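Chapter review. Work through the record for Patched domain containing 1 before attempting the end-of-chapter questions.
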Amino acid sequence: MLRQVLHRGLRTCFSRLGHFIASHPVFFASAPVLISILLGASFSRYQVEESVEHLLAPQHSLAKIERNLVNSLFPVNRSKHRLYSDLQTPGRYGRVIVTSFQKANMLDQHHTDLILKLHAAVTRIQVPRPGFNYTFAHICILNNDKTCIVDDIVHVLEELKNARATNRTNFAI
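C-alpha cells for Patched domain containing 1:
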C-alpha cells in the first residue's frame, strides 16, 4: 500500500517535471551553458598561492612577528657576493649539515678531509638531460669573476688543511 502511494506520487512528480522541461527547452538547454561560462570565467581571477607560510601560518602569528623583528634588527646582505643559503627565508638552495657519530671535533684532520671530499663530490655532480649535461657550475651562484661562490666554512677548512700540510701551528680562524 505504502509502496503504491509512493510510486504514484513519484510518477506524478517526475511526469510533471518532464512535461515542464519539454515545454521550456530553450531555458533548460541554455541555462547549463551560461552557468558553466560564468563559473569558468571566475577562474580567470584564480591565482595559485605558492607560499606555504601564507597558507599554513596565521597572518599575525608570533613566528612572523619575531622574524620581522629579527630581519629589522639584523638586516641581511642580499648582494650577489653572498650565498642565498645565508638568508633566513625559504628558497631554492641546499645545505648539508655534517655531524660526527662520536661527538668528535669536526675540525680535526680526519673530519676536515671527509668534509672537503664531500664538498668535492657535490661540486662534481652531473645531471644528464637529453642534449645537455648539467653540472654544479650551471646551478651555482656566480660572483663577478664568473666562478661559483663557495661557503666560508669550506675556505676555512681548506686553509686549515694547508696549515697542517705546512706544519703551521698558530693558525687563526
